[in-house]
Design brief:
The protein is of the alpha/beta class. The protein has 2 domains: 175 residues, Rossmann fold (3-Layer(aba) Sandwich), CATH 3.40.50; 173 residues, N-(1-d-carboxylethyl)-l-norvaline Dehydrogenase, domain 2 (Orthogonal Bundle). Strands 5-2-1-6-7 form a 5-stranded parallel β-sheet, sandwiched between helices. β13 and β14 form a beta hairpin. α3 runs parallel beside α4 and α8 packs across α11. The longest helix has 22 residues. The C terminus is likely disordered.
């Protein structure tokens, strides 16, 4: 399959390099001509989990420079969410007959593009790969994650299997017939791993150890899970069961919960959050597509999401320069969103957001 990787950040760089190292024909599209020239000169290098690999692309160019007559069989859209919405139509124009556009962003990007371009062109995708761009063209893979792909309709399809087999040459790819549920499962992790790490200015393993870190993780996750279930989605198991042990609308602590959290930490604990990297580089974040999406859907459904809403506000403040990432921000979120005591349906006392 003639494959174009759009976006040469951490995720796009790792996918392009791993796939090319396995002998596939891969092209790379960047945002600017300057970035394309730099990558064409330096090549792409991946280290870390999965071993070292190097790739000098057959062609690296800005997306706008690619001719629609090139007729790619597969375009993997690995940009940030806000860029993907803009670039989607350009990517679709580069597809040959029967070609597939595979967005792998957080949130509802694939659904938005499918509405605009048609599901016949768009395959749903999510990434559980953890990677860091050390420098342009230099990447470190931080976990043994995978891409999750599937038809947005939930149907089984030959094209999804073809894409899985092709990309599977270089990275692990898993098929699902519950893309909607998988999207929510990834959002729940993002809301409580990526964005809290961005607030604290550190990895998940580091922020879990500071005051308020564990509580804020669970409260952000609990809100996102409540909203997901209210939409009628069935969150899909990824690393862990999406519903924490003993969950009653909030997470209950204990040995099983600690083991559940430890599994998440084993995969993401040492990964520098991509949103923190964006903040450090002065780039736009995906906060509105992550915690912001939870807050927006919760608002439409009449569900309060004070923790996720406050996280969005503080990340925007960091982006504007009025705040800086710091562990003390975790306690600030909790102070703004105190718990109140209520009785659940079983008559036991439980704490819920005020």
């Amino acid at each position: 399959m003639r494959t174009l990787i759009v976006g040469a950040g951490a995720l796009g760089g790792v996918i392009a390099t791993r796939l090319a190292a396995a002998g596939a024909s891969v092209w790379v599209a960047t945002r600017t001509a300057q970035a394309a020239a730099q990558l064409a000169s330096s090549g792409l290098t991946v280290t870390g989990v999965g071993g070292a690999a190097r790739f000098r692309a057959q062609e690296v160019a800005p997306l706008r420079a690619y001719d629609p007559a090139r007729a790619f069989d597969l375009v993997v859209l690995a940009t940030k969410a806000h860029d993907a919405i803009v670039a989607g139509p350009q990517c679709a124009a580069l597809l040959g007959e029967g070609g597939t556009l595979l967005p792998i962003q957080n949130g509802g990007v694939a659904e938005v593009l499918a509405e605009r371009l048609g599901e016949v062109r768009v395959l749903g995708g999510l990434s559980n790969l953890g990677a860091t761009m050390v420098a342009p063209g230099v990447y470190e893979q931080r976990n043994a994650g995978h891409l999750l792909i599937g038809e947005l309709s939930g149907a089984r399809s030959a094209r999804a299997e073809r894409v899985r087999d092709w990309l599977g040459r270089g990275i692990d790819v898993v098929l699902t017939r519950n893309m909607r549920g998988a999207t929510w499962s990834k959002l729940m992790i993002n809301c409580s791993v990526t964005t809290i790490g961005a607030l604290a200015g550190c990895t998940m393993r580091e922020y879990i150890a500071v005051a308020g870190g564990r509580e804020l993780f669970h409260r952000a996750y609990d809100e996102a899970l409540s909203v997901a279930l209210a939409t009628g989605a069935t969150p899909e198991r990824m690393l862990v069961d999406p519903v924490p042990p003993g969950w009653i609308g909030r997470t209950i602590g204990g040995g099983e919960t600690d083991a559940w959290l430890a599994t998440i930490l084993s995969a993401y604990g040492g990964v520098k959050p991509s949103m923190l990297q964006d903040l450090e580089r002065g780039r736009p974040t995906e906060i509105d597509f992550i915690n912001g999406h939870v807050a927006d859907v919760g608002n439409r459904l009449g569900l309060a999401t004070p923790v996720n809403t406050t996280i969005v506000e503080i990340v925007h403040a960091i982006s504007s320069g009025t705040e800086s990432p710091h562990p003390g921000l975790l306690q600030r979120v909790l102070a703004v969103c105190p718990l109140r005591t209520a009785r659940d349906t079983s008559g036991r006392h439980s704490s819920t957001p005020s």
